Batch of 4 targets.
Target 1
Amino acid sequence: MDLLRYSASRFPAAHAQYPFHTPLRRRFVAVRSSLSLPFPEQKAKYYRELEAAVDVVERACRLCVDVKKSLFSSNGRILEKIDQTPVTIADFGVQALVSLEMNRLFPSIPLVAEEDSAFLRSNNLVGSVVDVVKDKATSGDEVTDDNILKAIDRGGKDACVFGPKPATYWILDPIDGTRGFVKGSEAFYVVGLALVVEGQIVLGVMGCPNWCEDCSENSIVGIQENSSSRSGIIMVSHVGCGTWTKRLSDILTTESSHTWTRCSVDSCQMVEGARFTIPESQSWKSLPLSVLFDAKRDSENIGEGNILLLSACCGSLCKYLMVASGRASVYIQGRKATSTIKVWDHAVGIICVHEAGGKVTDWAGGSLDIAADQTERRLIFPSGGVLVTNGSLHSKIIGMISSNSSVL
């Protein structure tokens, strides 16, 4: 049996210790996933870990759907964190659920995730999270206030300290695109989970409950409140095995008529013919390529010197999902001096795009260093920003960025 190792020490912040090495032992506990993976076990070294990740992301998506149904009938379900980023009971619920389940199966693997329980405690909302997690957890009897708080904090800041050596750990974004979550069905949101082994991202799972299968190319997000095409999607990736998708609605209803589909990035080779997506917090004019191209949001009015800019609110992971599935050619994000770039906004997207044939680097063409934050593994520091492409366009755009970055 393979033994994974990690260079992290799990301990309360108040009792800091030096990092140490310890073998990771896998618990062979049955995973209750409702679907098989799209490739055989003998081809995937981390098959069991991916199987567990798919299972828990499925259930996390169910949790999101359930919370969303009641979101707009209860004012107390929509909250504001100190930094004014919207956060809901679903964020905390997903982190608690994933932490509980992965700790049960792989107790030696630390978790790096977005939330901690401080806000939940101060607003007396622990009971609400317990309610939404209880029927999604393997053992509902173990879902107590205390266990929920511990599970959330297991992924929080200062939960573990990493040394400079390569480490093994999960990276979770409970809900990427929370602003989209609270808007209804008009914007995508994604549950994202990745596994890093000895410093390398080896698998990833993204669940997007409101993914629209047949949105037009210039209105990917498209406001379709009553559209049956919003079946949702689950995307899985394993190093060396490709990236695959399946309709989430089939999984959630235990239907099996739709099989896995292998993902490929698009084949666009001309920058002017590419479909771009950028962060909602950044304008096209703030990016280096704006010196060369004007951005249009209407595909029918694209002319010489124009590129098509897709509407894709909200979050980073949905944009990775779009590139990996061939809906977008390029996702470009500039690094701001006034904000930090979180690892959970990129980790699972990186492997999904790579395994679909695309490429992810910083603006200088270097690989994103997910271990740049050696102590906590929570931040990345890309030179200039992040560039995600179909691969064919990558070197061209890097060259354009290099030539025009100083102009802005």
Target 2
Amino acid sequence: MNYNFVVSKTDLLSRIDLDELMKKDEPPLEFPDTLEGFEYTFNEKGQLRHIKTGEPFVFNYREDLHRWNQKRYEALGEIITKYVYELLEEECHLKKVYVPVDAEETEPRSFIFMSEDALINPDKLMILIQGNGVVRAGQWARRLIINEDLDSGTQIPYIKRAIEEGYGIIILNPNENYIEVEKTKAQEQPSPDSSDEPAEKKERKDKIPKDTKKRRDFYEKYRNPQKEKETMQVFIRENGSPEEHAIYVWDHFISQSLAENVFVVAHSYGGLAFVELMIQRETEVKNKVTAVALTDSVHNVWHQEADKIVREWMRENCCNWVSSSEPLDTSVESMLPDCPRVSAGTERHELTSWNSFPSIFRFFHEAMEAKTSSGKAAPTRRSQRIRYEEL
């Protein structure tokens, strides 16, 4: 092996021009806590625009400071989340319901959103489940909300149309799984005796020249110039993962609803969470759910060990609108023996829920009609090219 090109960390540090690095101090990680503070607002088309220039959001606000720009983007994302929550309550007239339902005052908790008639609507109930990551209740994709518009990035168009068509609504919040609390000093700095570090390694560290240590400390400070507070995660009881959350909401809300027909829209990891719910509550789900619309779902019936009965039910009652260059609703081949797959009419994963929006409502309408005419759940879709007529 040729070691001529191997450069040790010590050699690398010795070449750093400390004076030059000092000129690139990172600005404070302190950002506004309102849209107005960021000088942005949503226009009449639901697009995020700069108040003064009318320009879209700019990620690279400061050149060569990717970490700072990313932190700024994340801070804006938190404001967007609160803004969408406000829209759910004020425009969509949904109510916030906390989980676990029996949480103590001092206990970590999350929440979902429900329409007033969610549990008492005797006809139909729609459940919305987003993918995983930073998105929270009411959102499909933060990136779309910031860079495109509210219609494509949020669940609000689904909610408003569902309410117009007489559905009750329950919005899950599968990614709100824990709260972060600041670590105590004792937790941040374990005693040397409790360290698992070998004695030889500690001895080698002690022998590092002072000058090298100084340069290394400076480098670490430059790489992470503003040491953020150390936090730890405290998980929310029975809601510590998207799968747990879906099962909890099913047990305490959906299964208690009076709706004769439950319809589910699940995007990306939300589809996996639904399949896990199906596996864990098979009989209940089969009896209550009429149809499921998945959008670019990442579920896998083999890895999740879905049995033959679950797979057969999915083939008859589910459809997955996947990212594809084919026209909307065109049949797409699948290697998995589960539900039919059709094109969402876009190759962008995050846009699949928005693009398939009208098709999904027609899919639910057909499933309802088929069930009503036969008196029982009927096959709702086959693997074939489909062109819907406008209702």
Target 3
Amino acid sequence: CKTAVESLPTSFSKADLEYIEKRLKLDFINSGENPAVILADLGAIKAKHANLFFEMEEIAAAQRRSMGSVRRSINTIKELTQHLQPAVSASFFLYSEHHSQIEVLGCGIRQLSDSAFKSVPLSIRSKVKLPELNSFYQQLQEHLCKNNSSLSMQKMKQLKLNMSEAKLKVLQHLTLIEIDKKGSVRLLM
């Protein structure tokens, strides 16, 4: 404070300078801010800043590593896709033969056409009737779309879906559903 006071222009009298010095001291005392405390706080803030900067550098390095990993994974997936594309195209052709004969009703619910139904061998469709199959398939789609899961045979019976093994086999033959080893059914479309 004395250096600030001493550097003031000389046009002030000595009494004026003493008053300014006392006033500055009083302001420091009344404000409750001790310059030593302010300097200590400033040092703590600088240390926190340095620590945060170091952590930010670590995070940026981790992000660069993870982005490199993601890029490598994407490149691997691209290579696999290019390698598998001929086989997938052939499978899609067979899949679309059946599915082009499926009608889409409101809310995305699908219904089998007569030609799709008749494309299933008689030994598989046995005594199944198309209207009953479409009714069951609609119920199955509605439930599985709402719950986004699979259904066990037991649960289908509890829900009183008009289920039969023959209907499931027809839908499975048309690759509309998949039945896992536990007997749970899930939609493929």
Target 4
Amino acid sequence: MKLSKEWRIGMKDMQQILPPPRNRGQLKKPTWIIVLLLLVCVFLVLSYIHPPQTSGSCYIFSASSCETFSSWLPPSFRVLSDDEIASSVVINNILNTPPIDSKNPKIAFMFLSVGSLPFEKLWGKFFQGHEGRFSIYIHASRDKPVHTSPYFVNREIRSDKVEWGTVSMVDAEKRLLANALKDPDNQHFVLLSDSCVPLRDFDYVYDYLMNTNISFIDSFTDPGPHGSGRYSQHMLPEVEKKFFRKGAQWFTMKRQHAVVVLADNLYYTKFRDYCKPGMDGSINCYADEHYLPTFFHMHDPNGIANWSVTHVDWSERKWHPKSYEKKDVSEQLLKNITSITESVHVTSEERRETMIMPCMWNGMNRPCYLFARKFLPETQDSMIELFSNYTTKQ
């Protein structure tokens, strides 16, 4: 009996030392955690379906922007309209159709001018001896040109009024392309202004453009007020802000791209109606700077170079680029321009971010520019005198 009593005392002591057994219900995770997780999941799904439209809503997630939050999520897919489907089919068929096989491939030089071309004599020197390898088209929006070179006689197309900053600039480009496409031998198309001059000899330009399979269309992202700040929500759903691009209008493009531009009506209409001065009260959008850069970024981003082969100097930070006067023209100036091998874009943000990329031609880093603007008429004699010197040293 004594032994039994001692054993019971020992067990009692052990119970005091050991922790009490856990309640079976405490093994489960607290219900409030599960409910919280479910609420977060539901909130994220709803935010994905109906994303926040104000910057204040975005700051719930991140101090950066709604784009940062949306980057966490998989891409959304929407049902395309009948017009978008039809446009996509046409564009893809044109891009996938082999180019016309020409026995005499030519470059179409398309001049956008208000009247006479002040550099006809210089261009005549550029074209001389290469007859049959080029075509010339002139869109004179105000006056009938008076010609000083036989290469330009009777090369005017039916023109219309062109106003700077309006979609009429794009209309003139399309009018030039339409006339140039009539000739099946034209395989590459160059848009030039009346202030453009050649920087290279004809053979160099011909080789540069004809022996590559891309178009030299300028296209870059500018998140500033003169880039994405010009975008209008009215362009939705076909043109989303993330696709909106900017670039110089002075392009060169291969035949397939020229046909695509003429075939497009859907996206052109969006820019005609919603990219113009005074949009939404205070936004000044210029279709000639945004339509083609955005259009080709959306439909054939790998088919364009993202820079223009026409040099222009924006270093003065004015509404218009630097104009070259007679005193500015020298062999050193032309050498400096033709030695540039990197394309530079500067955004319109207050911090003015600079983006630099090498000018790649068939996988090789080559000089970027074949033409230059904006040269004043007074420079023609100096340019003619220098032409043979600086082109023979290329």
